[in-house]
Amino acid sequence: MPQRHSKNNNDLAFFTYDEKRKLGYGTQKERLGRDSIKPFDACCLCLKPLIDPMCCQKGHVFCKECILECLLAQKKDIQRKLTAHVAQQKQEKEEEEEKIMLQKARELDAFDQQNHGAVPQYSDKNYNKDKNGFHGANSVKTTSYEEEALRTMKAFWLPSATPEATAKVEAPPSTTTCPEGKENLKLKTLFPIYFTEDSSEDKKSKSLEKSYICPSCKVTLTNTLSLTALSSCGHVFCKKCADKFMAVDKVCLVCNKGCKERHLVPLQKGGTGFAGHDDHLLATDFKHLGSGSGLGLVRPAMKT
């Protein structure tokens, strides 16, 4: 019996546990740290702490400068695409008019050749031409057409003679979109939000970073809590206090400004993009070991 020198060097008929792990067999787990998750007080565009935070109606939070630059860049891009689209439509219209003029010129030329040529050109489909393809007075013109076609013919096997497909510019959308949620977003729908900073002495002495609390229950706000902002005044509460007090009393607990149910906007929490909010947990592929091959094959998951 051969001696086993290491856990990866053997002549067994099956794979060991360590070999299966290296081949990607089984469930792959990885613990994500704090650096892998976006903080709740970070901008969705620059990923830095918020400066003059603005929020959309879907709960995505941005810095005021970042979102204004984004919307301005989108408007410039829409204007550029619209100008290119209008220019393309104008060019297509001119080409169509040119084709109509050429068609009319060909019809007039054919009419002239038929009435003034040595041998009339028959339009009857049953009329049989001779073997040499003689067309009477039109034979010279037909030969010149063939020479021009051979000279301008595109050859697909020559890089210099391959035809080029014109890229059509589609009509751009007329409205700007949210860079995070991809829904229509206008500047007037954004509203400023205000976090309540923790001003206790022990918090200031322990950490240099700002920490925020709920103005109602004084709980420190983290990514584990669901937050709700009031679009009427902009104050941020935890979801528990917002549902318990604001939804019932119809008034903000900080500024005593009236609010309605539609003014409660849940803020989006920072996640990893796949399983951050337990949404869209659908596997797109899976790994399995081929029988006797020792290779980890990847196949798309079948829809059930």
UniProtKB/TrEMBL annotation:
Organism superkingdom: Eukaryota
Coiled-coil boundaries: 79-106
GO cellular component, one term: nucleus
All copies of domain RING-type, residue ranges: 214-256
Location within or outside the cell: Nucleus
Cross-referenced InterPro entries: NOSIP, Znf-NOSIP, Znf_RING, Znf_RING/FYVE/PHD, Znf_RING_CS
Keywords: Coiled coil, Metal-binding, Nucleus, Zinc, Zinc-finger
GO MF term (any one): zinc ion binding
Family of this protein: Belongs to the NOSIP family.
The protein's name in its UniProt record: RING-type domain-containing protein
Species assigned in the record: Rhododendron simsii (Sims's rhododendron)
